[in-house]
Automatic annotation (TrEMBL):
Domain Exocyst complex component Sec10 N-terminal: 39-147
Family: Belongs to the SEC10 family.
Keywords: Coiled coil, Exocytosis, Transport
Sample GO molecular function, one term: small GTPase binding
Residues annotated as domain Exocyst complex component Sec10-like alpha-helical bundle: 158-707
Lineage per the UniProt record: Eukaryota, Metazoa, Chordata, Craniata, Vertebrata
Gene: EXOC5
Name of this chain's protein: Exocyst complex component 5
Coiled-coil features, chain-numbered ranges: 50-88
One GO term (biological process): Golgi to plasma membrane transport
Sequence intervals crossing the membrane: none
Organism for this UniProt entry: Ursus americanus (American black bear)
GO cellular component term of the entry, any: exocyst
Length: 708
């Protein structure tokens, strides 16, 4: 049986159990093992093992039944014991309730007895206290203070309590009968008050916080309590302002006092608020006045810088003080303190700001024009000037004499940066120093000054001067500087627009002034764009005029009708070379002077005019066969030049012109076929005819017949 028990392992698996049994049985191995396989012996072993298992099962079953009977017996005994404990618990709970009721009854009796004792003791204590006060009052009445409480300096606290009560009593007595004793009590009251304040002062100097707290608690009921607070505030500030930065000193002082004031006074928030008020109204106000008054009338720039700096540092200090407990509405309290310091300076701030900004801007511009040895000419406004402007816009005619600017644009990025920097600082000061209700209006005033000096006095003046400097279209070897003006004006206006968005918009975004500023900006842009368009248009005319001069001077009639048809060695004419060189130079200049879609727009306009010029120029000559080939070469070169424009329309125009030039050399029999080709099919027949007429052999009957 022991062997059978050894075969059981946890967890029990029947297959493994059979394997272990077979492995232990002699003759139960496989046929190649040390012992031959013996099925009979293995069967016998299985039968014996089954009998052993049956015997083991019966034994275990008997043991289980015995344990179950024992468990049932113990469960009954445990249930009986639990019932007995429940009964005992109910009895104990009843006893506890009775005890609780008894305790409550006794406590009620004790409270009642205490109330009765207090009702008897309180009048008794009052009577004893009144007797003592009468005794002390008699001493004042007799004029001789004998009690130890008045003569012993260590009992000043008790004396203060007594004299404070006597002082209240004396105020109720008639003056005619008790004037002398009232005077003595008042004198003693004052003496004790002074002694207490002196004791508080000495304790503060020694740094004895506990003693200061005791004396302050006694003085709380005296009239001189506020004087005690004043003394504390005064002594706190002794040696507190040793640095050059009074604002940092004030912040450190308030932080130090905030840590200890709660350990001394019963109303720390009131004391701390009084200290802060004292710092603002005395120290800071005096400092601000000294800093501003000396430069208020003599140096507006320094005055505005000092005002902005002092106001910023004061508000920063106020933000730090917001961390402390100063009562219910500390925001309003601190705002009033700041206002009391700066009101007289902020009332007329914007007048000083705008006055300074105007004079500073005018000086920056004048200094620039002086450096150029340029005397600004007045640009008139009103009837005649407006009439001239309207005529110039409609006719593109130069009105008045052309001015030689010697290549000067009269635009300076340095001047612009200086003007924008001054305005940026003005916007920052305006944001900080203006009342919220006045902020949009003040910001608009600064913006109008920027428009006046940057946009009108500088950019618009440069545009007017640049327009006046554009030569007429028939001028020879004209220097075209207006594109330089366009380039610089474009850069400057980007800077102006950036400042408008970055510094002005946040100040006016939620006010009616926003639409007014946007409208003013729109008007300025439209006015400048109109002048830029006029100048660019006239500049393009001058470019075309220059090309006309080159063609007129360099192009010869014999170029397209050479005397010796068989001895033409050039690929294209000299006029074509010079015109293309000039055009490429101007295209590069336009690309450098403009950005975005403006480049394409101007190049397209120049390309169209360039095409019209070449088209009309070719119409002036008669072409032999070799001359027509040379004209095709010229147009091919012009077309190559047109590719630099990178404008599809311009390239298409020159492709068509190149196709038209083929009519100058094509055989008469092929004219109709060429004219019906893809590039020429949609053209008007008159245009085609006009080019065919340019052929030297046009009058031959054969050619006329083929083209008719």
């Amino acid at each position: 049986m022991a062997t059978t028990a050894e075969l059981f392992e946890e967890p029990f698996v029947a297959d493994e159990y059979i394997e272990r049994l077979v492995w232990r049985t002699p003759g139960g191995g496989s046929r190649g093992g040390p012992e031959a396989f013996d099925p009979k012996r293995l069967l016998e072993e299985f039968v014996n093992h089954i009998q052993e298992l049956q015997i083991m099962d019966e034994r275990i079953q008997r043991k289980v039944e015995k344990l179950e009977q024992q468990c049932q017996k113990e469960a009954k005994e445990f249930a009986k014991k639990v019932q007995e404990l429940q009964k005992s618990n109910q009895v104990a709970f009843q006893h506890f309730q009775e005890l609780d009721e008894h305790i409550s009854y006794v406590a009620t009796k004790v409270c009642h007895l205490g109330d009765q004792l207090e009702g008897v003791n309180t009048p008794r204590q009052r009577a004893v206290e009144a007797q003592k006060l009468m005794k002390y009052f008699n001493e004042f009445l007799d004029g001789e203070l004998k009690s130890d409480v008045f003569t012993n300096s260590e009992k000043i606290k008790e004396a203060a309590d007594i004299i404070q009560k006597l002082h209240l009593i004396a105020q109720e007595l008639p003056f005619d009968r008790f004037s002398e004793v009232k005077s003595k009590i008042a004198s003693k009251y004052h003496d004790l008050e002074c002694q207490l304040i002196q004791e508080f002062t000495s304790a503060q100097r020694r740094g004895e916080i506990s003693r200061m707290r005791e004396v302050a608690a006694v003085l709380l009921h005296f009239k001189g309590y506020s004087h005690c607070v004043d003394v504390y505030i005064k002594q706190c500030q002794e040696g507190a302002y040793l640095r050059n930065d009074i604002f940092e000193d004030a912040a450190i002082l308030c932080q130090r006092v905030n840590k200890q004031v709660g350990d001394i006074f019963s109303n720390p928030e009131t004391v701390l608020a009084k200290l802060i008020q004292n710092v603002f109204e005395i120290k800071l106000q005096s400092f601000v006045k000294d800093q501003l008054e000396e430069c208020r009338k003599s140096d507006a720039e320094q005055y505005l810088k000092n005002l902005y700096d002092l106001y910023t540092r004061t508000t920063n200090l106020s933000s730090k003080l917001m961390e402390f407990n100063l009562g219910t509405d500390k925001q309003t309290f601190l705002s009033k303190l700041i206002k009391s310091i700066f009101t007289s300076y902020l009332e007329n701030y914007i007048e000083v700001e705008t006055g300074y900004l105007k004079s500073r801007s005018a000086m920056i511009l004048q200094r620039y024009y002086d450096s150029k040895n340029h005397q600004k000419r007045s640009i008139g406004t009103g009837g005649i000037q407006d009439l001239k402007e309207r005529i110039r816009q409609r006719t593109n005619l130069p009105l008045g004499p052309s001015i030689d600017t010697h290549g000067e644009t009269f635009l300076s990025q340095e001047v612009v940066v200086n003007l924008l920097q001054e305005t940026k600082q003005a916007f920052e000061r305006c944001h900080r120093l203006s009342d919220p209700s006045d902020l949009p209006r003040n910001a608009f005033r600064i913006f109008t000054i920027l428009v006046e000096f940057l946009c009108i006095e500088h950019i618009d003046y440069a545009l007017e001067t640049g327009l006046a400097g554009i030569p007429s279209s028939d001028s020879r070897n004209a220097n075209l500087y207006f594109l330089d003006v366009v380039q610089q004006a474009n850069t400057i206006f980007h800077l102006f627009d950036k400042q408008f968005n970055d510094h002005l918009m946040p100040l006016i975004s939620s006010s009616p002034k926003l639409s007014e500023c946007l409208q003013k900006k729109k008007e300025i842009i439209e006015q400048m764009e109109m002048k830029l368009d006029t100048g660019i248009d006239r500049t393009l005319n001058c470019m075309i005029g220059q090309m006309k001069h080159i063609l007129a001077a360099e192009q010869k009639k014999t170029d397209f009708k050479p005397e010796d048809e068989n001895n033409v060695l050039i690929q294209y004419t000299n006029a074509c070379v010079k015109v293309c060189a000039y055009v490429r130079k101007q295209v590069e200049k336009i690309k450098n002077s403009m950005d975005g879609k403006n480049v394409d727009t101007v190049l397209m306009e120049l390309g169209v005019r360039f095409h019209r010029l070449i088209y009309e120029h070719l119409q002036q000559y008669s072409y032999s066969c070799m001359g027509g080939m040379l004209a095709i070469c010229d147009v091919a070169e012009y077309r190559k030049c047109a590719k630099d424009f990178k404008i599809p329309l311009v390239l298409q125009l020159f492709d068509t012109l190149h196709a038209l030039c083929n009519l100058l050399v094509v055989a008469p029999d092929n004219l109709k076929q060429v004219c019906s080709g893809e590039q020429l099919a949609n053209l008007d027949k008159n245009i085609l005819h006009s080019f065919v007429q340019l052929r030297a052999d046009y009058r031959s009957a054969r050619l006329a017949r083929h083209f008719s």
